[in-house]
Amino acid sequence: MATPVVTSSAVAHPYADAEVEMGAPAGRVDPAKARQRPLPTPKPLDRHGPARIVAMCNQKGGVGKTTSTINLGAALVEHGRRVLLVDLDPQGALSVGLGIQSQQLERTVYNALMERHTTLRDVIVRNVGHVRGLDLAPSNIDLSAAEVQLVSEVAREQSLLRVLAEVRQEYDYVLIDCQPSLGLLTVNALTAAQGVIIPLECEFFSLRGVALLVDTIDKVKERLNPSLEVDGILATMYDSRTVHAREVFSRVVEAFGDTVFQTVITRTVRFPETTVAGQPITTWASTSTGAQAYRDLAKEVLAL
């Protein structure tokens, strides 16, 4: 999908006339269900690699980036793909969500980025979350130092791209869980990636920041990575029972059109449970609506 051209004014105030619209009869219609279409069955692979690198990115925290990275990765594995997850957030939520005690690790993504003699292979944890074929490059608070130390490096924006190059042939997808900011680590992820998935909570304040993120993506595309595209915007934490969520989703589709994934991730208590279990929802609650949603998302991603 091509990067959408969106100005801040297009999404900054989607509820300018909200007082009128909230009570409209159309608000009772579930716009997410209205967009549902049959999804193609992914074809099996003859061989693995080179990986398509995808950055899961949104500068706002708490929108479902980490949850989506884990569960999309696990769903892709179910379709026969080899997947590497990269934790590029110093908070290490991706690592914790897969049962890895990253504070106890001797080497993490930080070491691979900053130490000449440490490679990504030295860092990778294999078959995480009880999923064979799902690997993880973990991180912890040490990674916060990289934001400062990379400033003085030559080709600092390409540091992650260089690190990923040595393992790219081993995987079909590399999913990068970005930190909730538009700093140098996130720019590294965007420089390394071919695609960006933007998880967007179906809530007004989440929508306001998308224009800023799209502007950053456009700048990286222009100056550092001409092949970068927005793969799609993923609506998360959707609750069709509320007029607010339905209105936000409708405005997202209005602003971004076909760039919005058909798959919508609804709210469910199962997601917090999977974090405690250290497993993806596809294995922890394999028959749940959340698990099926990420399987559908995987089909959309594979069809790109």
Automatic annotation (TrEMBL):
Biological role: May play a role in septum formation.
Family of this protein: Belongs to the ParA family.
Protein name (database record): Chromosome partitioning protein
Lineage: superkingdom: Bacteria
SUPFAM superfamilies listed in its UniProt record: P-loop containing nucleoside triphosphate hydrolases
Domain AAA: 52-230
Region (Disordered): 28-49
PANTHER family: COBYRINIC ACID AC-DIAMIDE SYNTHASE, P-LOOP CONTAINING NUCLEOSIDE TRIPHOSPHATE HYDROLASE
One Pfam family this sequence matches: AAA_31
Species this chain originates from: Klenkia brasiliensis
Coiled-coil regions, chain positions: none
